[in-house]
Structures are given as structure tokens and as C-alpha cells.
Amino acid sequence: MSSTTSIHGMWSSRLAFILAATGSAVGLGNIWRFPYTAGEFGGGAFVLVYLLCVAAIGIPIMMAEIMLGRRGRQSPINTMCTLAKREGATPAWQLLGWVGILAGFLILSFYSVIAGWTLAYVVQAGSGDFSGINADASAAFFGDLVGDPARLLTWHTLFMIMTVLVVARGVASGLEKAVQFLMPALFLLLLIMVIYAWQAGDFGAAWVYMFQPDFAKLEAHAGEAMLSAMGQAFFSLSLGMGAIMIYGSYLSSQASIGRNVVIIAGMDTLVALLAGMAIFPIVFANGLEPGSGPGLIFQTLPIAFGQMPGGSLFGTLFFVLLVFAAWTSGISLLEPMVAWLVESREFGRPLAAILAGIAVWLLGIACLLSLNLWSEFTVWGMGILDLFDYITANVLLPLGGVAIALFAGWVMHRQSSEQEFNLKPGSPFYLLWRLLIRYLAPISVILVFLDAVGFLDIIIEWI
Which of 41, 67, 108, 251 has its CA 20 to 30 A from that of 292? Predict the structure, then answer.
């Protein structure tokens, strides 16, 4: 069995863990990417495929990552070092921890810049600047923001300060208190936005777009839809970046990992679906384009809020909601680095949080400058922000996910995982998890990786 407690502290309750892990999983991508992808690939038909992928890929890997974290009770690097030694495996498995922390470090550096946009939009929406705005003016506003390094630096700095302040206070006083306020507030804001969209938008068109099954559209793009569903199931649960592993290390030994993971996955999916029903009625009511990706949030929606009754108030609430979603994710991305500094360099937590925050902040400056002053500097045709996004999403996170599945399914002794799940030998639930984590989950993530880097089509043609 795992040691009883982590040196960093413990979640005071099962609810605190669920809120924290859901906060880690729920991010800006949930708000715009999932609803649009669902509509693109057949609405309700895609949602069904996605839920199957969550059950077969996301939940087994999340269970494995939490199990490893709880068994090791340390930062991802030290957890993997300890578990590899305990299971008689090569110490090289600690590289899994390094990959997770590196991924979180790079993601937070550019995520903080994008989260800064949401802070800027809260101020603009609250000031009534979107009132009566048209498409050209909205595009110009976004262009002016992205093209102004001083403004981007201000908002990026503010977001990093917000994140560091929470992490510096520790598990009980920082992380737990933050998520106990932020997650209920996020759900409340989301429900308010859905009610507003129902009253002021085209709710029927949005419902059809997202939930009416169109199996013909799904079949027409079956391969692409399946890969998209598998990728969304993996990425949307915040897997492979050390955040879920470190949160698992603060979980009580008596808590059921499987039951908690099912709730977290359900809440994460619920946020994505509610976000779609908050956004798309407004989009369709104003005759706007639903498939414009991040531009949907920062260029399309301001136009809609500018034309609608109460648009300034509800536009402000919407961008506050985005800030909360980004903040809970940012906290979880910084925590693994801070835990490692405390353990391995014996820093106090406040100092560790400040040093890790400064490192991320400096790298974030390079990301924000790549949008303007350094826009001509590219690597493989990508600016620094896009490069970090590509490397983390397409290489580091899938690599981490596959490694988690292989270690939990093939390296870890069966008795070890049975003990951590508190299940009897031969339990049907355990046997199903073991089957999925050893075969289906790693193969699926490998397929997503090959597709993302452009190798899957080449392999299929070669075969």
C-alpha cells in the first residue's frame, strides 16, 4: 500500500479532490473546442463516440495516473523513481515524471498568455466596449491586443501572480480553498450563461447542432471523427502532464479511485456540453460562424454580446468564467514543479512557487513576443507559442500518456495495482481496467500521436 500522507499535505475530503481534479481538467479548450468538434462530426453521434472514448481511454489512464501518484506520494519525478525501484524496474522510468513536468512548464508558459487575453476581455466587456461592435471592430480590437507586447505582458504577469499566490499557500490553504470557491462559481456562471442563451439566443438551433445525431456526417468522416474523439478524451482530462499524478498523491488511501475518476470525467464532459449550450444559441441567433476555433471566443462572441440586451453584463460574466477555468488549470500545471523543488532542493513552498513562477513567466514573455515583435522568428514554420503548443499537445502529452499506461499495465506488479485500487483479486472491474490499460488505451494514444504528427496517413498508405 502507499504511504499514508504526502509531505506537502492532503485533501481534506473526497469532494476537495474531485473539485481540484475537475478544475485541472476543465480549461479553455473545453469551452470552445469540444462543442465545435461535436457539431462538426455529427452532433449527438459524435458525443456518443466521445463518451465511449472517455470510458475506454480517458478513465483507465486517469485511474492509472492517480494510482501512481497516490502510491508514490511525491512529485511525478520522485514518484516514478520510487515506484520503479519498488517494482524492480529501470530508474529510467523517472523520465516519465520529467516529461510531465516539462509539458506542464511549457503549456503554462503560453497558457498564461492566452489566459491574459481573458483578463483583458473581462475589463473591456465590463467597460461596455463591445456595445454595438461589428466584425471589423472586433477583429481590430483582438489584433490590437495581440500586437501590443506591453499589454500582453501586463495581463500575463497578473495571471502568473494569481497562480503563484495560490500554489505558494500549499495544498490545504491554497489549492483546496481556491478550487472550493472557483469550481462552484464556474458551474454557477455556466448555468447563468445557459439560461441567458436560452432566453436571448436560438436554443433550438444549438440543440440540433450539438445533440441531434447525424450518423451520416459521422460516417462520412469516420476515421477523422474517431481520432478526434480519442484525442479529445485524452487531452480534455488533463492527462500526461503530471497534474493529475500530483493531485493523486494528496488523495486519502481510503478513497475509491475508480468512483472518483468517473465523477471527474462526468463533470468535465458536463462543462463542455453546457459551454456549447451557452455559446452556440448566441452564435446562431446572430448569424455568426460556429466553427472559428479560438476566434469564436475572442472575435465572434464579443460581436454577439454587443448586439444583445444585457450583453455587457453577460459578456463580462462569460469572460470571468473563462478566467476561472484558466486559473484552476494554471494552478494544477504549476504544482508538480513546485512539489519537486520542495522535495529535491529543500526550498520552502513560497520560495519554490515564486522561482517556478518566474521561470514560467520568463518563458511566457518569449511566447507573447512571438505574436508581435518576434513574429518573423519561426522554427519549422511556427512561432514560439505555436511551437510550444505543438510540441506539448502532439509529442510530450501522448508520450506521457502511453508511458503511464505501459508502467501501470506492464511494469507494475498486478498485486501492487490491486492493493492501490482496494479491490479483491479477480474483481471484474479490475480485470476490465487491466485489459484497457494494457492494450486499448496505449494503442489509441499512439494512433492519436501518429495522426497528429502526420505519420498515420503515411503508414496507412505504406500498408
Answer: 108
